[in-house]
Specification:
Layout lengths: L11 E2 L7 E3 L6 H7 L1 H11 L1 E5 L6 H11 L15 E3 L2 E3 L9 E4 L8 E11 L3 E2 L4 E3 H7 L2 H10 L1 E7 L7 H5 L4 H10 L3 E4 L5 E7 L2 E3 L6 E3 L13 H11 L6 E5 L7 H13 L1 E2 L8 E5 L3 E5 L2 E2 L3 E10 L14
Parallel strand pairs: 2-3
Antiparallel strand pairs: 1-2, 3-17, 4-5, 5-20, 6-18, 7-17, 7-20, 8-19, 9-16, 9-18, 10-12, 10-15, 11-12, 13-14
Length: about 325
């Protein structure tokens, strides 16, 4: 797209503690509008890490799918989901199933996979009466704000994700791997550097070690990129954690995270990570028809607790195989 094109000039509202917002008048053809301005919209995401487009007026699932398709070269099929979603079309999903009254803390989508989405897309069809924002936080700034000794340990060791698949909580085998065939699941695990062990009751437990800090594939800047806090037992509500430990045992939680050497992560560390995220959080309540684009590597996102009916659709795009997706023995220079 030529820099002289009117579509390349977008007036974005920048307000402290809020994501950048682009106000538009609802076009007759939302997908056509998005296609014409795709380069300019993506440039804003590259510059700011996220962009909320307000006024686009999407109201139906098919309309959202067309807008998302216009903004990307193709949507990703989710694998290794931590919570079930409803598939609404190729690469188009409902929000992950999660209790309304429990927040989904800051995280980078699928940061524990070898091929991660570089771009997240969200669209709001129904906004809740209270709460429910998809908030964002700059991963570069979060990394800079963390204590050096902690960030360097994670950068040196990485982080370890453990999962226990069962039919009662979290994503099932089929929802996570796209199949419940044992041989196919084992092939996937071997191909994606996941250690696995079948349990006597037929359930599956897995372990995978990933980097906690990566360099952005476009800017080269170091980003805090993981789900260490979100998938840790200490982020769960106390009553939920107590129930799960009683029901499945400390080693059988649906998911948990450790330091890369397998050492447990203390509650104090998890609280520090979540409070650092909160210090850098930008939030704006959803309005029906909103669309948001998020650079998944530079920007963490969350889903805040809410009351009322909420319908936000999600898609993932621009798959990236990060060269430093696995931890190294050396700490990168700052």
């Amino acid at each position: 797209m030529s820099s002289s094109s009117p579509a390349s000039v977008l007036e974005v509202e920048l307000v402290p503690d809020k994501p950048p917002v682009l106000h538009v008048e609802a076009p007759g053809d939302a997908a056509g509008w998005a296609a014409e301005r795709r380069d300019a919209l993506c440039a804003q995401v590259t510059e700011h890490g996220a962009l909320l487009v307000r006024g686009l007026g999407v109201r139906e699932t098919d309309q959202v799918g067309a807008v998302f398709a216009a903004l990307t070269d193709g949507l990703m099929t989710e694998r290794e989901a931590f919570a079930p979603r409803q598939s609404l079309g190729p690469g188009l999903y409902s929000s992950a199933a999660w209790p309304d009254n429990q927040p989904m803390c800051m995280h980078h989508e699928l940061s524990y996979t070898l091929e991660v989405p570089g771009l997240m897309l969200f669209a709001c069809l129904r906004a809740p009466g209270q709460g429910g924002a998809t908030a964002v936080a700059d991963a570069e700034r979060v990394l800079q704000a963390l204590p050096t000794t902690l960030s360097e340990r994670f950068e040196r060791e990485g982080w370890l994700l453990t999962r226990s698949y069962n039919e009662e909580i979290g994503a099932s085998l089929e929802e996570s791997f796209g199949t419940d065939d044992r041989a196919a699941v084992e092939r996937y695990c071997r191909d994606h550097a996941i250690d696995f062990a079948w349990q006597p009751d037929g359930s599956l437990r897995t372990r995978q070690r990933r980097a906690a800090v990566v360099r952005h594939p476009v800017t080269g800047r170091r980003c805090w990129f993981n789900q260490i806090a979100f998938l840790n037992e200490w982020t769960l509500a106390p009553e939920v954690r107590e129930y799960l430990v009683d029901e499945y045992g400390a080693d059988g939680l649906p998911f948990n995270t450790c330091f890369g050497d397998g050492s447990p992560i203390g509650e104090d560390v998890v609280q520090l990570l979540n409070s650092t995220y909160e210090d850098h959080t930008r939030r704006e309540p959803w309005q029906p028809g909103d669309v948001m684009l998020v650079d998944n590597i530079r920007t963490a996102h969350s889903r805040e607790a809410f009351a009322g009916e909420r319908q936000v659709l999600v898609a993932m795009a621009e798959p990236q195989r990060l060269s430093d997706s696995r931890p190294t023995s050396e700490v990168s220079p700052r």
